[in-house]
């Protein structure tokens, strides 16, 4: 059964995107649709990632992540594979497979599909509202220890295992 069949259609205008956007570290994330709006089926997020943002190698126990690259280039490490993705490419990261990524160009813009939904809560918990539809101002400072503690706790609570550097 289609989990969306009981819900009303959803339309979010371009003017409404700012109120659905957050600054996640040096990045901009926009919640196009959340798991709350799809009865948990999926979430779709538009991400603008800044070069230098590299999450640690990690494993999702609950969800797959799929990315469609809109602009720029990004390198993924997925299990033993190294994938260099460019605008127009699609990359699927299955749950239970260790992965990380690294933007290659100054910025990379992608659509991130999370199935089932729920993991988008980490982005919300570890971010602040965007005050403009752009990357946050550059401060030159690295995030403080409390940001990383919050991310570690949020990931653990959502079933994501952060792997140590080898």
What name goes with the CATH superfamily? Jelly Rolls
The side-by-side strand order for the widest beta sheet comes to 8-5-10-3-2-1-11
Mean pLDDT metric: 90
Low-confidence stretches: none
Tally the helices: what do you get? 2
Cα(first) to Cα(last) distance is 44 Å
**Cα-atom radius of gyration:** 16 Å
SSE string, helices as H and strands as E: EEEEEEEEEEHEHE
| CATH topology term | Jelly Rolls
How many distinct beta strands? Answer: 12
Name given to the CATH architecture = Sandwich
CATH class: Mainly Beta
Main β-sheet, in a few words? 7 strands, antiparallel
Helix percent band = 10-25%
Q: What is the total domain count?
A: 1
The shape is: globular
Tell me what portion of residues adopts beta-strand conformation: 35-45%
Q: What structural category characterises the helix and strand content?
A: mainly beta
Description:
By secondary structure, this protein is mainly beta. The protein has one domain (14-162): Jelly Rolls. Helices cover 11% and strands 39% of the residues. It has helices at residues 120-125, 145-157; strands at residues 21-24, 27-33, 43-50, 58-60, 64-71, 73-78, 81-86, 90-93, 99-103, 107-115, 128-129, 160-162. Strands 8-5-10-3-2-1-11 form a seven-stranded antiparallel sheet. Strands 7-6-9 form a three-stranded antiparallel sheet, with no helix packed on it. It is globular and about 40 Å long. The termini are far apart.
């Amino acid at each position: 059964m289609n989990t969306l069949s009981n819900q009303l259609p959803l339309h979010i205008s371009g003017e409404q995107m700012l109120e659905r956007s957050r600054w996640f570290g040096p990045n901009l994330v926009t919640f196009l649709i959340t798991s709350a709006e799809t009865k948990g089926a999926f979430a779709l997020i538009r991400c603008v990632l800044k070069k230098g943002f590299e999450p640690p190698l990690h494993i999702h126990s609950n969800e797959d992540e799929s990315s469609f690259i809109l602009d720029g280039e990004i390198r993924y490490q997925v299990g033993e594979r190294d994938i260099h993705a460019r605008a127009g490419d699609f990359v699927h990261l299955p749950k239970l497979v260790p992965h990380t990524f690294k933007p290659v160009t100054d910025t990379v813009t992608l659509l991130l599909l999370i199935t089932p939904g729920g993991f988008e809560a980490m982005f919300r918990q570890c971010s602040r509202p965007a005050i403009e539809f752009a990357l946050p101002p550059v401060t030159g400072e690295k995030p403080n220890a409390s940001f990383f503690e919050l991310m570690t706790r949020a990931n653990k609570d959502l079933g994501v295992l952060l792997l140590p550097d080898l």
